[in-house]
Amino acid sequence: MKRRGAGLLVVSLGLAGCMHNYAYTQTGPHRPANPASCSVRLYTTPPPGAFEELGVLEINGGWGAVRSAGQFLDANREQVCAVGGNAVLTEINGYGQYVRATVLRVDEGPQVKHLSR
């Protein structure tokens, strides 16, 4: 039994080491939280139209590299939504790793209705 418990501990620590931790620093106005599973858009260049900067997410430990937009959003969606954001402007280093993101509140503007003829 001792061996099994020790094995589970090693696996748990190994999985924890693969987790990515991003530290959030507020740089803009406080906004009400969105639902935890809100929609978050990922940008690699500033979005068109009006937006405001709410804060910055910077990688703060963890092993491995976040190399995909999906992996980055999975790791950070809840935190972005919690501070009222609905988009992130990401920074990718020379190795293709997501290392920093500015949390934004993008003005989605009026909804455009398409009329059929």
Written account of the structure:
By secondary structure, the protein is an alpha+beta fold. The chain has helices at 2-18, 69-82; strands at residues 22-26, 41-43, 51-59, 87-92, 98-106.
Identify the notable features of this structure and list them briefly:
Dodecin subunit-like, 117 residues, alpha+beta
Number of helices: 2
Q: Assign an overall shape.
A: globular
Order of helices and strands: HEEEHEE
Name of the CATH first level: Alpha Beta
The CATH topology name reads Dodecin subunit-like
As residue ranges, the low-confidence spans are 1-18, 111-117
Distance between the termini: 73 Å
Report the major sheet.
5 strands, mixed
Mean of residue pLDDT values: 79
Level-2 CATH architecture? 2-Layer Sandwich
Oligomer: single chain
- Secondary structure: number of strands: 5
Classify the secondary structure makeup into a structural class: alpha+beta
